[in-house]
Amino acid sequence: MQERPGDDCMKRIYIQEEYCIGCRLCEIYCQVKHSKSKKIIKAFKEELVDIMPRVLVEEIGYNSFAIQCRHCADAPCVEACISGAMQKNKNTGVVTCDEDKCVGCWSCIMVCPYGVIRRGLSSGKIASKCDLCVDEEIPVCVKNCPNEALKFIEKDEDKKDMMRSKNEKKK
Amino acid sequence: MALKLTQSEFETERDENKCISCQVCVRQCSNDVHEYDSDQDTIYSDNLKCVGCHRCESLCPTGALKIKERDSQFKTNYNWSPDHLRNIYRQADSGGVLLTGMGSDKPYTVYWDRILFNASQVTNPSIDPLREPMEIKTFIGRKPDKLEFKKNKNLKNKSIKLKTKMYPQLELSTPIMFSAMSYGSISFNACKSLASAASQFGTYYNTGEGGLHKDLYKYAENTIVQVASGRYGVDVDYLNKGSAVEIKIGQGAKPGIGGHLPGEKVTEDISNTRMIPEGTDALSPAPHHDIYSIEDLAQLIYALKEATDWSKPVGVKVSAVHNIAPIASGIVRAGADFVTIDGLRGGTGAAPQTIRDNVGIPIELAVAAVDERLREEGIRHKASIIAAGSIRSSSDAIKAIALGADAVYIGTAALIAMGCHLCQKCYTGKCNWGIATQDPYLTKRLNPDIGTRRLLNLLRGWSLEIKEMLGGAGINAIESLKGNREHLRGIGLSDRELTVLGIKHAGEAW
Amino acid sequence: MRRKNNIPKKDEMADYIIIGNSAAGLAAADSIRKLDKAGKVMVLTEENYPNYSKPMITYFLAKTVSLDKVYFKDKKFYRDNNIDIRLNTRVKSVDTAGMFLTVESGRIFYFKKLLIASGGKPIVPRIRVIGTGTIESSRSGKDKTFDFMDGTNYRDIGGIFTLTTLDDAIKIRDYIEKNKIKEISILGGGLIGLKAAEAFLETGFDINIIELANRILAATFDQQASGIIEKKIKSKGSNIYKNNTIEEIYITDGKISGYRLKDSEKRGCRLLISAVGVSPDTGFISGGKLKINRGIVVDDYMRTSGKNIYAAGDVVEGPDMLRGEKRNIAIWPLAVRQGGTAGINMAGGNEKYSGGFFMNSVEILQIPSISMGLTNAEEGEDKNIEVFKDFNPKKNMYKKVVMKENRIIGVILVGNIERAGIYAGLIRNQIDISSVKENISKEDFGIIHLPADYKKHLVVGEGIEV
């Protein structure tokens, strides 16, 4: 997948729980982005059964928040993957699932502490894992949140992790 | 089951070709208009509950929804309009006072729309605000009777110093402030947005009668605190935190009566801020029970000045009523540093509909009358006049200033900037935009970051427009426009109206 | 294979030698390279393949995956990381004092640091053989007759296989094709046996599973969970023999033709897979040179009792955080984690292995299931144990959560495995869930149901601002 321009940065998606209004537009736009047609009406009317959102909104009472793959520094899913389908990009740190290699063993689901990987029911493979929309300027869930509850920013801890691994490469 | 005589006024029109049954509308409507049927995989809308707030239409990702007036028609009757019929049906159902929210929507003449502003042509060149200094900074407070200077006798140092001691002033970077809206009538996030925008732009916001929440203390330098008839939240900290104190006698939307916050909306947080028991109705009495005459008002004004060490302006807010001119004169003589006049079309969180629509006079006329009277009596400089009550645009603001105001308060305009669609159902506490509600599910919808940003944009946009209009009229300081009726002309107004406003008719010249 | 020119032909030398080319071994190689770009890294494997994922064998068997897809590391992995890989090199012995090892061919390899990641060997039970005629040996070229089959000679009998290497899978596939096999018997109803069964059931074979315990997947599933799977397998017309084992094997013309069960039933059989279990492959470490129980004993830093010698993966007996003692837990994610830790420590780092616990994911006939931790505890066994169960056999769904002193120690999920990892996180971090216990029963159990301070810790660390 083509990388986001200028993408040595380690931006990740963060959520401000107090502003999530539980509308689930993030889920909808995620589905559109990962559909074939990329057009919302066509995708929902014709393709819906095949596309799962990679972001998940959890809700109790009036509390809600959206959660997706954290692209962890020490990703347990990459460790557990028996086929090498789950890989962490050395530059961007983005964790992606190569659907060709995935065999649907569900080991990643077993170890992901956030529970943000889900199985594709019709494909028998991992269908739903956030890929940080690497070919977009900002991930579509962040862009389309009507209350700006999702933020796409770089945090100092990520930077430190990134610099550490870059320095290790240089040695 | 009793027969339903009241019909809904709005309906949602759904384009089935565009609807993807994503259910965002179902989740977002606090009035439960939309419902998802999983068997049919469609959404049904119960239009009887729609209040026309446009929340679903705004959030629909495919633009499938449109809000329309339901337009169920009665036999044409110029006397018994549909509004009158509906009011009687509602009253016959409830037997109580009919409540409503926001400002009066009745077709009284909007004088702003009948007043035109001037521009320079040949005799007095216009000024380009982008190339030359344009001063819209405004000071609110009492101005001295005259200025005395001290000249330095030293021949080498020719500096001049001001001898007269100035009264405390509020310095505004623009002649626009945020009107009094209490925490309780609006949500905390809304208050925070107003406070933050005022602070960043260099103007002021008003706490209204809801007290000052401690999380807003950091905006103290941009806060005007209000002392209303219920005295909610008024203690020594409150008075000291504010940059100015405003005694609220009346409010444009409901002249003559006090505020009302239903017990359901008095949450723990509001109870702490207003210093009243949780769950009790917050009813402000009609008069201040220690102000029964103008002398009493003077006493309170001086008591507050004493309590705040004479360090901040103390003013009075009144509704625009018939005898507003002598009333304002009395207030100024009582020692007020500023007088806020709130006109007929001012907004509110809850008011009896019949008072909102029938009591008071439009602010345009009130400002003109008050400015004229104070000038006649030679006391115009002793207090600033702040005009409030439906200032809808920068042109309304500039006209208000030309009619005699020092600055304007915006309330409804600020809420609209944050998302309000004027459905007038504030009193139900179900505001879908998270503004006029305390329901935690709904208040989340107003992200203060976004609210602040939008308010700042509004202030910035209006300020730039004011500068453009001033420049166009060949004026480079807002001070020169204050009360300068020559820059206004009426259009389509009667002689009487023109006299009250103190302006000529369009076409007349010097 | 690369050869250094300036080292004597016989002996070789490397800074780091890794025995074993699978999960643990390559994770270690990766880690070493992160810290040490220059040191010489050598990987020795007895097999003939660059690298492949052992768990993928059953997928290969089921034809879901082709031969070129069984590799879990990229083809250029060795080259890109400057790793010297020696195939077909079985280690014969290790001299822990002299810091060298000897391979089958006699060549000697000196090392500064050694990692033993040799994995496990299949256990083949000793079973009486009754046959007519002699058996052709596939190895020595001589005729052989014997009365018992065990781990040393099972390969000599046609149609009997274990399933732990890629070669095994290839041989089985070839044998099936050549001999037109339609029915397969599997001795052992544990994970390997069931994973093999999954492969065959999906491709239309009839299978017979013979299990010693009173249920399949006895080590990880309780009665209800294994009952669901059993029912599904049987619905396909396959047989499951519980509380049973093979007592005699019958051979005809050098190939297996049938067997007799403990309960005296006899069956015809032309292909038998022995999937009773694996044990750590430590045969090449002799004479008490390293502390070995069932597996090589290691400490929290993956160090063995020998200086500069580390061990990781299926061969190891390492910290089991739930049982509080050392155990051999042979699963892929732990092998990777242990290998990575060992690698860091070998290259001069100081990384502690936080311990592991058993977990497994297997899908049989479209019923996914996940088990983790200590799953076989029942309520009342211990006064501190609480068990939540939601058994829905009609829908083939089951959820069991075992809690001890308000901390989750075991989970079984059958049918709905959504978000199972959240439980893994709770087990690993030993979170006290007393405040939110009633949420466990919710179908949409998620992060929002977790105790507030864990939720904050979990998400403030790497993601959500709460």
Low-confidence stretches of chain C: 460-466
Reported for the largest beta sheet of chain B, the result is: 8 strands, parallel, barrel
Distance between the termini of chain C: 54 Å
Approximately how much beta-strand content do the residues of chain C carry? 25-35%
Provide the number of structural domains of chain C: 3
What is the β-strand count of chain C?
29
Q: How much is the radius of gyration of chain B in Å? A: 24 Å
What number of structural domains do the residues of chain B give?
2
Q: In which order are the strands of the major sheet of chain B placed?
A: 11-12-13-14-17-18-20-21
CATH domain topology of the largest domain in chain B: TIM Barrel
- Overall 3D form of chain B: globular
Amino-to-carboxy terminus distance of chain B: 69 Å
Explain what this protein looks like in three dimensions.
The complex is a heterotrimer of chains A (171), B (510) and C (466). With 171 residues, chain A is an alpha+beta fold. Chain A contains six helices and eight strands, in the order βααββαββαββαβα. The longest helix of chain A is centred in the last third of the chain and has 15 residues, at 156-170. With 510 residues, chain B is of the alpha/beta class. Chain B has two domains: 10-100, 2-Layer Sandwich (Alpha-Beta Plaits), CATH 3.30.70.20; 170-483, Aldolase class I (TIM Barrel, Alpha-Beta Barrel), CATH 3.20.20.70. In chain B, the strands form eight sheets. In chain B, strands 11-12-13-14-17-18-20-21 form an eight-stranded parallel beta barrel, surrounded by six helices. Chain B starts with 9 loop residues before the first strand and ends in a 5-residue tail after the last strand. With 466 residues, chain C is of the alpha/beta class. Chain C folds into three domains: 11-55 and 70-120 and 280-346, FAD/NAD(P)-binding domain (3-Layer(bba) Sandwich), CATH 3.50.50; 124-276, 3-Layer(bba) Sandwich (FAD/NAD(P)-binding domain); 369-462, 2-Layer Sandwich (Enolase-like, domain 1), CATH 3.30.390. Chain C has helices at residues 23-35, 57-61, 77-80, 166-179, 191-202, 223-235, 332-346, 420-428, 452-462; strands spanning 11-19, 41-44, 83-86, 91-95, 100-103, 108-116, 120-122, 127-132, 135-136, 143-144, 148-149, 160-162, 183-187, 206-210, 239-241, 246-252, 255-261, 266-268, 272-274, 278-280, 296-297, 309-311, 316-320, 325-327, 359-364, 367-373, 385-392, 397-404, 407-414. In chain C, strands 1, 2, 3, 4, 5, 6 and 22 form a seven-stranded mixed sheet that branches. In chain C, strands 11-8-16-17-18 form a five-stranded mixed sheet, with no helix packed on it. In chain C, helix 1 packs parallel to helix 7 (332-346). The longest helix of chain C has 15 residues, at 332-346. Classes of the chains: A alpha+beta (171), B alpha/beta (510), C alpha/beta (466). Chains in contact: A-B, A-C. At the A-C interface, strand 1, strand 2, strand 3, helix 3 and helix 4 of A face helix 1, helix 7, strand 25, strand 26 and helix 8 of C.
